[in-house]
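Notebook, p. 212. Picked up where the previous page left off. The plan for this session was modest: take the two constructs that came back from the sequencing core last week, fold each one, and keep the raw output in the notebook itself so nobody has to go hunting through shared drives later. Recording the first one now, exactly as returned: residue sequence, then the structure token string.
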Amino acid sequence: MASLFVIAQAPASCGELVQGIFNGENFHISCPVSLYSRVKVTLNAEGRIVGPSSRWKTKETIKRTLSFFSEESLGVNFKINSKIPLGKGMASSTADIGAASLAIARVLKKKISPQEIAKIALSIEPTDGTLFNGIVIFDHRKGALFKFLGKVPDMEIFVIDLGGRVDTLEFNKKVSTKINQKREGEIREALKLVEKGIKGRDPGLIAKGATISAFSNQKILYKPDLDKIWKISQAAGALGVNVAHSGTVVGVLAKPNRVNFKELKDSLQDREIGEVFYKTKIVNEVLQCISTVEM
């Protein structure tokens, strides 16, 4: 009997465009970018889930996706090829989980929606809205909020990793509700600007809202070089900055071909700001099956 192998991919996130509390609910606005995790799955005759031991979240995703389809007895081999760094606030786990769940559905020749994948993901850990096409408002803890804002206009992002790692699970347990409540006015303004910017396809408004949220988040997870990054980037022609609100990266937002990213990188490195740099862009199409091969 012929068998299939399937490869699915899901994108990283350059942090979030906005994150905070709105009407008492946690939410963020997604910021999917063109760095990907690819997960390859094949069914096996052993009845076991076999793959890298360090990727326990992916293994658990496969187990729960099989259960979703009432196929718990099946065995699966999986491999991960990811360009997304871990512990940086770039949704590496969400990408692995999303790609794995979609790959399992396809290898079983069944359908699964982004909402169903998100429910599986949320049963494992707080989850990013990058499972959904376009830009969305999403409650990364409970999945209670979901609103499609639209597709973002072409925007480049220069991702700056400031170093270190953040354990997202532990971080989300410690975030102060009181501090978030004090920030709610700033977050409402940031949300309003980003919504208006997406609706009007105005990169400047999107970046302005993201910048407000980024600096507001300094009260929760301080990034010592954020002010310097914004001043240097603004002088280089950037529109704004965004951050991983529970991670280590900062994004510089720009219209395509408006910022010389090599010069910006050199300028930041001259000031000993940043450890790793990526030039990328916001993407609107996220979860994809990129290969299905019958063996």
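Okay, moving on. Second construct, recorded in the same format:
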Amino acid sequence: MSLAATLKTRARASALALLAGATLHGAAAAHPTRERVAPVAWREIASADVDAMNRDLVAGRPTIDVAVYLPSNFDPGFDKVSLPRMLEAVRAAKQIYGRAGVQIHLLWVKTGAVDPRLLAIQSNEIPGVPDTEYVNTYEASRRHPTVPTQMALGAFESIVEPDADNARTLYLIALQDVIFPFVEPAEGRNWTIKMVRTGGLSFPAYSYYRTLPPRLRGVITITNLSSPSRQRRTVAHEIGHKVMNVSHEYRDVDPAHEVFAEGGLMLYGAGEDIPAGADGRWHRERLLLSPFVYRLRADGSKAWNPDYKEGGHYYDPLYGDKVVRFPGRSAMDPNW
């Protein structure tokens, strides 16, 4: 091989190596490894009066444990979540679930300084395989579950304190912004990526099927309680995603990213109903079967419901026949 040919070959190899390095660097930047963040130093807020919130609890009734983490270092311009608003939201949730036969036990309300970089997070990676009409949204989520970002996981690792009951406890974590990206049909055979600023996000098992570490599966983020309607329903609605393990649906309304209608707690509207039976899509039955529910024994120990058998997808055998088999559908042009 001539010197010129040798140099040309080496130049091409160097260029390919640089391109590969740039590609790998870009991939690493897009999917950063989980950063180790120091645990938050939490302290209980005495003025929250947790004991008063729990005075109506009755031993032996189905119960859910809920804990609240409220950062002390919100930016000065953020006022959508406060201690009074969070407490009012928990009181409303207690009323709503009490009517369905389940009581909420508030474990604590704590405050502390969260790493400022984690006051705003992206919840999950952009989905790689959008839903089509061949299977319904729950089966699609089982096949292609939502994947939390390393940023979100790092944040929750630093916020949620280690505990034997981590996997059974619901954690209401107040943050400034939690951005949720999703894919929806645009036109023809195309999809578009959307990113929504959430007021609350539940990271439910039907969607994040086996992608959340067990000790973080009770995480719920709360970012907007600024109106009376949000204070009344946001916490209760997000708890519903966890404990009923259903999306935005109600009676004859199949699940979707956003469903605005009146009636059920799991729709966007003013409804608070948690219906029962086949006509109610088994919401109350699924609630009472939830692994987050327990009954307090006479000796003070907790008799927990059985855990998920297959990681908590919508059709998990835990629920038996308390599921809805509905067809898939798509807004995409069928003649693409």
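Notes on construct two before I forget. The longest helix spans residues 3-30.
Flagging for discussion at group meeting.
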